[in-house]
Amino acid sequence: MPTAIAVTSADLVLPAADPGTPQAAVLPPPESRSLDASLADMQQLLARYGHVVVVCPTAAPTAVEHRLYAVRALLESDRIALVRTDLPPLGAAVLVRQLRQLAGCDFSPGVLASAARLLAHYIYAGAVLGSVSRLDRVPVSLGSHLKGWLPGAHFAVLAGPTPQIVRVGASEEPLAGPEFATELLLARGQLQTDWPATTLVPRWRIPGPVHEVPLPASSPGWWGTGKLVEFAAYLPDLPVLYQLVSSVRRETCHWCGMELIGDRCGFCAAPLAPPPDPGGYALGPGDRTRALGPGARTARAALP
């Protein structure tokens, strides 16, 4: 049974990469759904799939984050992972689709949840902007602000893996691109430019056609302007994604007992424990729960 991938916005659900890609469950926003209804929705997902990985961008409204934590705490469930991502909207949607692809494989829920941080490092997410005056999620130098006052100035901005801003023009500095084969996804806003297709594709040696999707509703707010063309270069093939995740050493979370890769558990957010002291005694998940008393399970479920 695949782990359920849930999202906090329909904008995070891209068309399936192939017929075998599982769908994502869209959790309605708090203003349109009562707490009791949200609890029932999550209970249905848990009953059907066993575990749920919820992807919630850090740019999501605070009420969305609070609702997710409240649902997990009230259900006293350690089978719900809340994955936060700093990626811009289109890049976050790509990450969600990759997790959906991997959910159909033989990865455990813990590995799938903690793989989100690994996959985000291989997504080159950015945009071409007509202005950087209101951009506050990527560092903007004083020089870029001053150049923004020039008539017709456009900027190519890379949000991750390494932030970078260059002015689009004849002598522009190239954006640092991937050193592996990728595909490019575009979402057009109000800016009229073909720069990603005419300049970025040959520089980054991206083969094949450029795919386009509607601009996410949250993109203008994330980038500080509606005059943009958002893009994301990513690993499209499931065998490559599978090899990437399966090649990382797996550990067991010392707090909740879930499998993980990397340095942090995707379910309880506990950091990877240091090697045990040969002369000491380390509490296991069950021992720790009993030692903390009957309220420990609720506290664990409420952890960010």
Walk me through this protein's architecture.
The chain is α/β, with parallel strands linked by helices. The protein is built from ten helices and twelve strands. It has helices spanning 35-49, 62-75, 89-103, 109-120, 142-147, 195-203, 219-223, 238-246, 285-292, 296-301; strands at 4-7, 25-26, 52-57, 80-85, 124-129, 155-160, 164-167, 183-188, 211-212, 228-234, 250-252, 259-261. The strands form three sheets. Strands 7-6-5-10-8-9 form a six-stranded mixed β-sheet, with helices on both faces. Strands 2-1-3-4 form a four-stranded parallel β-sheet, sandwiched between helices. Strand 6 and strand 7 form a beta hairpin. The model is unreliable at 280-304 (pLDDT under 50).
Spell out the blueprint of helices and strands:
Elements: E1 4-7, E2 25-26, H1 35-49, E3 52-57, H2 62-75, E4 80-85, H3 89-103, H4 109-120, E5 124-129, H5 142-147, E6 155-160, E7 164-167, E8 183-188, H6 195-203, E9 211-212, H7 219-223, E10 228-234, H8 238-246, E11 250-252, E12 259-261, H9 285-292, H10 296-301
Parallel strand pairs: 1-2, 1-3, 3-4, 8-9
Antiparallel strand pairs: 5-6, 5-10, 6-7, 8-10, 11-12
